[in-house]
Design brief:
Length: 411
């Protein structure tokens, strides 16, 4: 982030704060604005649909401004640390094929993969064990299981991974006009993406209750492990905060204060597939790690790479005219750009992607500890450079939720 961009963002944020545009109070909003989520989620609405292939409920987030539909899939990823290297490489190749499929489908506008780690298993574990317990089991076994359930919330963390795909139903040859047909078209597009072999299993399509839980629990982490009945009657606006304040480096909302960091630079060297493990390790605070994707079509990807090659050579030439030779880093940039262009000429695709991490503390007093925990996790990756989302904390916070907002997707 350049100094000019930093100070321009700071000036814009101060102007917004002066007119209270960075504060949200739902009870003070007139109808119908009180029925909307704050910020980038204001144009979204939740639709309860039925998937004809499975006969089950599906939650679809509709962006009323752009017409895009976002469908979320709950995942159950398998561990890769104990897997053979060949199996991991095969999963990476399969994921590359999924990205290739996105680039050739004009209706797929973007996707994001989020992993949320919440300390403690809460009441949900007790409910699950109670439902599975055999009433005829030995008394000793029941006592041991009960003791494990009692102590587990203090020793474990629950992991909730999901993938959200944003679809534009109007991009099809015969664009549907009815809302029900648009939802059906979006479901058909998402069903065409095959995730088998990517190292993860599909648990199910997220229902409207699942989406309410994920969004509401992000603003108030205390309700994450509540029962489904507590979310069934919530309206979409009630899933958001009652009050929120978008600060320069933090975002205060119901039940917590969050800080969000965004990707600044990836290492220039090849990295291992386990580079993100420090960010995924459980800690004291709830954490969300989001990878957002937008796969460029072949023409746009070629133009981007050609522009990168031209800029790299121009920077090297300008430095050589002043100092007599170009920097080695500039030469390496040019080589990488040319290598990427050669790979694309061989059939590879260009993907625009970014990484975002959000950590939520329960109070302002815990915020320094949460920030320190995040800083240590980023440093432990040994190469990934991240920075706070200055003046955009609310947007970065929402980008990790299934709200239909992807910062890389163009309207």
């Amino acid at each position: 982030m350049s100094a000019l961009a930093y100070y321009w963002a700071k000036l814009s944020w101060r102007r917004a704060a002066r007119i209270d545009a960075t504060s949200y109070r739902r009870v003070l909003l007139p109808h119908p604005y009180a029925l909307d989520l704050p910020g980038v989620g204001a144009s979204s609405t939740l639709i309860r649909a039925y998937d004809p292939t499975t006969g089950k409920r599906v939650g679809v987030v509709h962006d009323r401004a752009s017409g895009h539909m976002t469908i979320t899939t709950l995942l159950a990823p398998g561990g890769s640390l104990m897997a053979p290297t060949g199996a991991v490489q095969s999963s990476l190749r399969t994921w590359s094929s999924v990205l290739d499929a996105m680039s050739t489908d004009d209706q797929v506008k973007g996707a994001s993969v989020t992993i949320q780690i919440t300390p403690g298993a809460g009441e949900a574990l007790g409910d699950d064990v109670q439902a599975r317990q055999d009433p005829d089991a030995p008394r000793l076994a029941k006592r041991i299981v009960s003791e494990l359930v009692r102590t587990t919330p203090h020793a474990t963390a629950s992991v909730a991974p999901w993938m959200s795909v944003t679809v534009d139903p109007a991009a099809s040859a015969n664009a549907p006009t009815e809302l029900s047909d648009q939802v059906a078209e979006a479901l058909k597009v998402v069903d065409s993406l095959d995730l088998s072999g990517t190292g993860t299993d599909i648990e199910r399509r997220a229902t409207d209750v699942d989406l309410r839980r994920l969004v509401r629990a992000a603003y108030d982490p205390a309700v994450f492990n509540a029962r489904d009945q507590e979310f069934e009657d919530l309206s979409w606006s009630e899933c958001g905060p009652i009050a929120a304040d978008d600060g320069w480096e933090e975002y205060a909302h119901d039940g917590g204060v969050s800080i969000s960091w965004v990707l600044r630079e990836m290492p220039r060297r090849p990295i291992a597939y386990s580079v993100l493990l420090p960010l995924l390790a459980p800690g004291r605070f709830q954490r969300r790690i989001t990878l957002a994707y937008r796969v460029l079509d072949p023409h746009e990807g070629e133009a981007v790479l050609e522009r990168e090659i031209s800029h790299a050579h121009q920077r090297a030439q300008a430095t050589a005219e002043v100092k007599g030779r170009a920097k080695w880093s500039q030469r390496a940039d040019a080589q990488r750009a040319e290598q990427a262009a050669a790979q694309m000429a061989g059939g590879s695709q260009v993907a625009d992607w970014t990484l975002m991490v959000t950590v939520t503390a329960r109070s302002t007093a815990e915020l320094p500890a949460a920030r320190q925990e995040l800083e240590r996790a980023v440093k432990a990756t040994r190469g990934i450079r991240m920075r706070p989302a200055y003046g955009a904390q609310a947007a970065a916070f929402a980008a990790g939720l299934p709200l239909g907002y992807n910062p890389l997707v163009k309207d």
